[in-house]
Specification:
By secondary structure, this protein is mostly helical. The protein is about 80% helix and about 0% strand.
Length: about 80
């Protein structure tokens, strides 16, 4: 697994991905996978991640807000 991670990091560095972007994307995907494993149950997911349920809820809400402008733009403009 370590070799795969190192290869991914090399690709990201070659693509000039900033650390903040990489960490943000990693966190979103990690949380998304944890939700899938826990059938979308907030408390179980938070427990599996080792964070408080409120913290998880705030992060999910922030991710949803950040994605909405992208969805609106794809539909042809803001509403």
């Amino acid at each position: 697994m370590r070799a795969q991670l190192e290869n991914l990091i090399d690709e990201m560095l070659d693509g000039r991905i900033l650390l903040s972007e990489a960490l943000g994307e990693f966190e979103k995907l990690y949380i998304k996978k944890a939700f899938l494993r826990n059938q979308g149950h907030l408390s179980k997911t938070a427990r599996a991640l080792g964070i408080h349920r409120n913290t998880l809820s705030k992060r999910v809400t922030a991710y949803q807000r950040a994605e909405k402008p992208l969805v609106r733009a794809a539909r042809g403009g803001a509403r």
